[in-house]
């Protein structure tokens, strides 16, 4: 948080809206201007005979009229400032969550309280108060959010990871912080049928992934790393499952962060147990990284957010944002439901102007015996001015 500047005349005191003091000064100046103009109007419009007949009475009448007009103007200014402040809060989402609802946990009310800055408005950011960081879509899941925040303060946190994940998948992200202690040994999770061998690092396919391909769409890590100009040092894996991609990269001195949820399996716990970096994050969340941070971004079919092309477009722009110029975007076995989906995804990718270092579209027979279309590509981000 920036400090509040108290310097005057050097350009540091910049305000987008009037403060209380500046509002008072503006009101006083406005009063002076109005008073001066009204007296001038009275002086030029009244005749000499008027002054001779009843100068005192006429003067008091005009002063009273001026006072009423000025009071009306000041009330309108005050009402306008209050309306602008309310509009600002509504636009910023400060009051999007109604805390007056019944059955809302006290911890949630306490966390969402606003805190005024001790030195007033910050000259660099224009912020006047600290607001709790919580996703606006939480408003649509207040019952679940209140349940999540209903716990014993300074006690053990409830074993409610599934509730937290449900809120995240509903867009309630980030979640509010809690004042409870997480359990050292979390409750076991049942594996889904799609993850029967995803934790088998000895006998399962995880042992061969990225070092031995099963088809033409499977690229090998060493081949992709050889395409990186300027070297690959740090990467980001989207929907990385059990973290095998990060593990293979770590063997080659490349640090990779894996973003994943615990969908039907404890992926985050398993990745951390392998000595890797898990990030509990949904794909609807803006990636918490600065621009041009990564040399490599790897993603598979998890990139397809609900099958909606506009959602994928927003996601692609965020990937482009965190990938440095010259960095590689590895699209690994992206599932295309049909040729139309493949063409739509192709058009979306091509609008970014990436150089196609590898581009393979292949068919694969699924468990039902039907042929499916998959796209694998290694793309290089261009330099933009």
UniProtKB/TrEMBL annotation:
GO biological process: methylation
Pfam families registered for this protein in UniProt: Methyltransf_29
Record key words, sorted: Coiled coil, Glycoprotein, Membrane, Methyltransferase, Signal-anchor, Transferase, Transmembrane, Transmembrane helix
InterPro entries xref list: Prob_Methyltransferase, Put_SAM_MeTrfase, SAM-dependent_MTases_sf
GO molecular function, one term: methyltransferase activity
Gene Ontology CC annotations of this record: endomembrane system; membrane
Keyword field contains Secreted: no
Family: Belongs to the methyltransferase superfamily.
Protein name: Methyltransferase type 11 domain-containing protein
The species this protein was found in: Nyssa sinensis
């Amino acid at each position: 948080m920036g400090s509040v500047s108290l310097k005057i005349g050097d350009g540091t005191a910049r305000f987008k809206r009037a403060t209380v003091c500046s509002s008072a000064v503006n009101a006083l100046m406005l009063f002076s201007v109005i008073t001066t103009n009204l007296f001038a109007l009275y002086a030029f419009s009244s005749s000499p005979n008027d002054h001779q007949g009843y100068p005192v009475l006429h003067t008091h009448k005009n002063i009273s009229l001026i006072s009423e007009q000025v009071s009306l103007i000041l009330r309108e200014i005050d009402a306008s400032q209050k309306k602008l402040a309310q509009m600002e809060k509504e636009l910023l989402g400060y009051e999007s969550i109604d805390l007056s609802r019944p059955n809302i946990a006290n911890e949630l009310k306490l966390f969402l309280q606003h805190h005024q800055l001790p030195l007033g408005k910050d000259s660099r950011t224009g912020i006047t108060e600290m607001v709790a960081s919580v996703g606006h879509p939480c408003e649509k899941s207040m019952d679940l959010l209140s349940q999540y925040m209903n716990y014993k303060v300074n006690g053990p946190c409830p074993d409610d990871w599934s509730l937290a994940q449900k809120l995240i998948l509903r867009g309630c992200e980030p979640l509010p912080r809690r004042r409870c202690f997480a359990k050292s040994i979390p409750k076991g999770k049942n594996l889904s049928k799609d993850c029967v061998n995803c934790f088998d690092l000895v006998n399962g396919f995880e042992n061969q992934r990225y070092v031995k391909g099963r088809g033409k769409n499977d690229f090998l890590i060493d081949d992709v790393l050889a395409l990186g100009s300027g070297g690959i040092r740090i990467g980001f894996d989207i929907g990385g499952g059990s973290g095998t991609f990060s593990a293979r990269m770590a063997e080659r001195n490349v640090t990779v962060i894996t973003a994943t949820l615990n969908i039907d399996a404890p992926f985050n716990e398993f990745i951390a147990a392998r000595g890797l970096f898990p990030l509990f994050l949904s794909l609807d969340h803006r990636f918490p990284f600065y621009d041009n941070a990564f040399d490599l971004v790897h993603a598979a079919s998890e990139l397809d957010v609900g099958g909606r092309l506009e959602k994928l477009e927003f996601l692609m722009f965020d990937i482009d944002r965190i990938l440095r110029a010259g960095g590689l975007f590895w699209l690994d076995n992206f599932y295309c439901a049909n040729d139309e989906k493949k063409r739509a995804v192709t058009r979306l990718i091509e609008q970014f102007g990436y150089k196609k270092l590898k581009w393979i579209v292949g068919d694969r027979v699924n468990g039902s015996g039907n042929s499916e279309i998959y796209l694998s590509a290694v793309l290089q981000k261009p330099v933009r001015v």
